[in-house]
Amino acid sequence: MIQVNNLSKEYSGTTVLNIESLEIPKGQSFGLVGNNGAGKTTFFSLLLDLIQPTTGCVLNNEIQVNTSEDWKPFTASFLDESFLIGYLTPEEYFYFIGDLRGQNKADVDALLIRYEEFFNGEILKNKKYLRDLSKGNQKKVGIIATLIGNPEVIILDEPFANLDPTTVNRLKKIIKELADNPSITVLVSSHDLQHTVEVCDRIVALNKGELVKDMPTTKETLQELELFFAV
Ligand SMILES: Nc1ncnc2c1ncn2[C@@H]1O[C@H](COP(=O)(O)OP(=O)(O)OP(=O)(O)O)[C@@H](O)[C@H]1O
């Protein structure tokens, strides 16, 4: 269970995120939507302890995220993967991440075989550096890397961006499989309302840093969101 208490973030005196209270139960597939600048990436960055809150805190299973090394079961992929990427081939990168998460080569290989169709196994053979891959292929590598080491919480910031339609469908299948696992919590942010509604069982909308909608996914959710964002 992730708990958010009185969480806010300011930059130069301007509040960009302000969430009084939010709970994300273990096993939930949680969709975060909102216009450009609404605060989605800020929220995820706070969950991941990549930035410090101005007020409040985030707890994972009652452990405050930035006070203990024990909270680190979160993995994440972001829209722009380039910050992860030096002069490493995808294969070197996967083994490097595996090493960080206590996975041996055989564990990583098993995962790569399992998801070969999604991330396009060809990427491994051509030995290009990650920085020289297309944006979509970088994205695929970033997403698969989040799955290494059996994380409890997987954060996918704009996972559908830059992916072709076939790959989007494969990704939706993967997210639904993860969502069906009661011990895995998946958090997805996206501008694609339809994809988000399809893979998430709860949708939260942010507007200018404030939580403006919080609803379970039903048959009406997509229409409701489309009307909301059409205003
Ligand atoms: N380092 C920073 N310094 C100043 N302002 C920032 C910084 N990082 C984010 N912001 C501001 O915080 C607000 C929320 O940004 P954020 O990236 O969280 O939005 P978002 O919902 O992810 O947007 P998008 O859909 O465009 O990716 C924006 O107004 C942004 O300009």
Helix and strand arrangement:
Elements: E1 2-11, E2 14-24, E3 29-33, H1 40-47, E4 55-60, E5 63-64, E6 74-77, H2 90-100, H3 105-114, H4 116-119, H5 122-125, H6 135-147, E7 153-157, H7 165-180, E8 185-189, H8 193-199, E9 202-207, E10 210-216, H9 221-230
Parallel strand pairs: 3-8, 3-9, 6-7, 7-8
Antiparallel strand pairs: 1-2, 1-4, 4-5, 9-10
This protein binds adenosine-5'-triphosphate.
How would you describe this structure to a colleague?
InterPro entries: AAA+_ATPase (IPR003593), ABC_transporter-like_ATP-bd (IPR003439), ABC_transporter-like_CS (IPR017871), ABC_Transporter_VariousFunc (IPR051782), P-loop_NTPase (IPR027417). This is ABC transporter ATP-binding protein. One of its GO terms (molecular function) is ATP binding. It comes from Flavobacterium aquariorum. Keywords: ATP-binding, Nucleotide-binding, Transport. It is a single chain. The protein folds into two domains: 2-74 and 152-230, 3-Layer(aba) Sandwich (Rossmann fold), CATH 3.40.50.300; 86-150. The strands form two sheets. The chain has a six-stranded mixed beta sheet with strand order 6-7-8-3-9-10, sandwiched between helices. Strands 2-1-4-5 form a four-stranded antiparallel beta sheet. The two termini are 33 Å apart. The chain has nine helices and ten strands. It is 36% helix and 26% strand. With 231 residues, it is an alpha/beta fold. It has helices spanning 40-47, 90-100, 105-114, 116-119, 122-125, 135-147, 165-180, 193-199, 221-230; strands spanning 2-11, 14-24, 29-33, 55-60, 63-64, 74-77, 153-157, 185-189, 202-207, 210-216. It binds adenosine-5'-triphosphate. Adenosine-5'-triphosphate (ATP) binds next to helix 1. Adenosine-5'-triphosphate binds at residues 11, 16, 34, 36-42.
